[in-house]
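Quiz preparation item.
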């Protein structure tokens, strides 16, 4: 090999290297898309009620206070495993009753305690939100949250 690199040699290395890394990037992007589409969502359990509950979660800005799967604010508890903590995971009616009872009791008016606003949801909306939280509790989240308390 020559001791001096010519312009054409440098250009070829630049274009060859750029092409190589573009191909690698595109390959990893396709692989990532395949992984996300085929493994991240359990479509068999994703019902219309779960989707409606997710829309309620977004509409009322629950993520502004709560975290879910580690995303959101840290003002209020993590809700990814709330149905497990309450002991109602898998029991839709018990989950509904627990969620409705908790949210209807808010704000509690206890001095010095963080207060959750009253959203005045309908029973159908409580069912949908409960279904969403039940569904979220079944996601394989790589042991998140790290403890049972959320």
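Solution:
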């Amino acid at each position: 090999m020559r001791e001096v690199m010519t312009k054409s040699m440098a250009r070829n290395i630049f274009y060859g290297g750029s092409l190589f890394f573009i191909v690698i990037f595109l390959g990893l992007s396709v692989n990532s898309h395949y992984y996300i589409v085929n493994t991240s969502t359990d479509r068999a359990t994703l019902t219309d009620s779960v989707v409606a509950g997710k829309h309620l979660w977004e509409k009322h800005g629950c993520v502004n206070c709560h975290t879910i799967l580690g995303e959101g604010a840290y003002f209020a508890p993590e809700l990814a495993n709330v149905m497990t903590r309450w002991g109602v995971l898998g029991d839709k009616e018990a989950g509904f009753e627990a969620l409705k009872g908790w949210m209807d009791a808010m704000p509690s008016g206890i001095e010095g305690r963080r207060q959750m606003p009253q959203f005045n949801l309908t029973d159908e909306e409580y069912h949908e939100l409960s279904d969403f939280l039940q569904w979220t509790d079944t996601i394989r989240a790589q042991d998140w949250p790290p403890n049972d308390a959320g």
